[in-house]
Amino acid sequence: MISKGEQAAAAITADPKEKSMKQLNTRLSGPWLIIARTVWLALVIPSVGLFVTGLPVYYERLQTACVGPVACNFAGALTAKGLRSLSAIGFSVSGYATFYTFFWVIIAVIWCGIGFLIFSRRSDDWLALLAAFFLVMFITTYSGLSTSVLALTYPALDLPTTLMSALGQLSIGAFFMLFPSGRLVPRWMAVFLLLLIIQTVSSLFPLTSPFNVNTWPGWLTGLLDVVSYAAVIFSQVYRYRRESSPVQRQQTKWVVLGITTVAAGFIVLGLLFVVLFPVVNQPDSPYSLLQNIYPLLTLLLPLSIGMAILRYRLYDIDILINRTLVYGTLTVSLALVLTQPAPSPPLVRHYATKLICTSCVSTWWQLWRRPCSPHTSRSGCAHPKSVKLRRNPPRFPVAEVDDAWGRDAAASRG
């Protein structure tokens, strides 16, 4: 007959949700590990090499006036009028090119650095390898940067850069369909993964080919994109509620926090640039430099993915999400107030006073409700009577099992 202690031990150790799916499905070993690492390096290193090789070409192109939609379709490209207007903000043409080149180098270093860090720490996990691959390939093959300019200057490199770009796009979609367990949930998501592969392969055909995705009707590609995005969102929600373990839910929260923060930031910046600073969106405007805030904001995505894979246990993500919602709502409210068409000064003071008071009360409440600790001052702690002290420290599942075994032993002796 099984004792209560053994039942408790079995309930704790046999619960599948207490085990990470990384240990069950995504672990690599033996020859497969060597093959995966070799393929990863064989694809990533040439992509990074092309990006670095194209930087001098990109720098030279930034100093040349662009003509036509193709030549003007890379980041920072300006026509002759735009180059002449740089003096209005104190930039020379060479200084502008230097700034833009170093700016994108820093952005690429962060994206690639997180990717290589994941590779160095979790290369025995194929899902982590997929995440690292997409982080590196996304920035190195991004349309409009040095790799694209290099392919435009040297047509012989067009085919390899197109292949790498297609692999990068495929890895992005596959990652969000498989994360965090490495399985397609529900199983019919395999249809959308197959559709993603078909779209990626079709982009490799010549632009004049009827098989190229760019020749498909606009309504069809738009419908496919909307349905695919909706399916991925539904899959993640379904996976979170039905399939994910506590660890996987923490990982999902990190990635969702990064995506939603980037999306909210894009909305706020779009409102500000359209209503308050429309000159930023004007063609050939030297103030278009402010649009570089967008790629800075997107850095939250690789950072959140890196945290989800490497350091998801280090911080309490629930507290971070709650505070992000509070202060994010205040920021959006302030942006909406500022973007109102020509309000009167008393009205501005009225709304500004309310927002400032709300922010102060929210900050004070967060400090007041925080319990005292040896590392915080008394002014930043909650009132002693409002803090519920725990007489006994929290116990781990092993301690609970030992207690159950002890009770069974005492009962048998009695």
What does the model show?
The chain is mainly alpha-helical and 414 residues long. The chain has two domains: 13-181 and 244-334, no CATH class; 342-387, no CATH class. 66% of the residues lie in helices and 0% in strands. Helix 3 packs antiparallel against helix 5 (93-122). The longest helix has 32 residues, at 31-62. It is globular, with a radius of gyration of 27 Å.
Keywords:
single chain; 414 residues; mainly alpha; 2 domains; 66% helix; disordered N terminus
Quick gist of this model?
The protein has 16 helices and no strands.
SSE order and pairing:
Blueprint lengths: L3 H10 L7 H4 L6 H32 L17 H5 L8 H30 L3 H15 L5 H8 L4 H21 L10 H14 L15 H26 L2 H31 L16 H5 L2 H11 L6 H22 L6 H24 L28 H17 L1
Helix pairs in contact: 1-16, 3-5, 3-6, 3-7, 5-6, 5-13, 6-8, 8-9, 11-13, 11-14, 14-15
